[in-house]
Amino acid sequence: MKFSDISKPSKDLLNDDYTARERPVPIGVTIETERSAAGTLSSKVGGKFAYAGLNFDKVQAKADGLQCARDLPRPLRGVTFKANKGADLGVEYTAGKITTTGALDVLNMSKLSASTCASVAPGINLGGDLGGLSSYNVGASYATGPLFASVTTASKFSTFNVGVLYKVNGDLSLASSTTHTSGKACDVLAIGGAYSGLAGVGTIKAKVGSNGITSACVVKEVAPKVNLTASGSISGTDFSTFKYGVGITM
Fold first, then answer.
1. Which residues does 149 contact at the CB level (< 8 Å), separation at least 6?
2. For the chain, does the N or the C end have fewer beta carbons within 10 angstroms?
3. What percent of the chain has pLDDT over 90?
């Protein structure tokens, strides 16, 4: 597990699919379209493929640049490259139960960062992240039965982020994301849930954020290994802020 994934279970429920985010699958072609409140449409096309013995895990074309990631044999687990305003080169190394990552903007020779995460016991992960000399944080996660909880720090330990996921049963899961600082004991960022008990409908997800935005989406497998995602969001009861998006993953 990477440090960036230490809160993954609760983050995925509260973030995935609401903007038709892609899920890597064997063929790995994704098409995403989103409509803004102003009526403009934005699209992204992505894919994954193998070439010369290397697996390119993600190649995505969009308006602000090209992203590319590829997997290499263990223990050098992955090398990523992202070209936008800079050129970020990343590497991931796994040894036993410890995963270490590093990233550097090779174009500007800046943005050096590194992280390490280790599985110290069944269901328990500990990690740390170093962003140059200006940022350093730690995190931990714990999973037991239907409960998952994680704590990560931000802004040099001045903020604590808590993620919780609880699987009520095989069809229903609930999640929350909160922050805690000296100035505010508890700030609820989002509360949401996912329900997959309606076979003819697919997975229904909904969440409410502290910014007053309510979001919902439905993910349906319309053919073998082909998922259709429809999502929408609205701020309060102001229908002029309504946005919707549609995504297809093959």
1. 141, 142, 143, 162, 163, 164, 165
2. C
3. 47
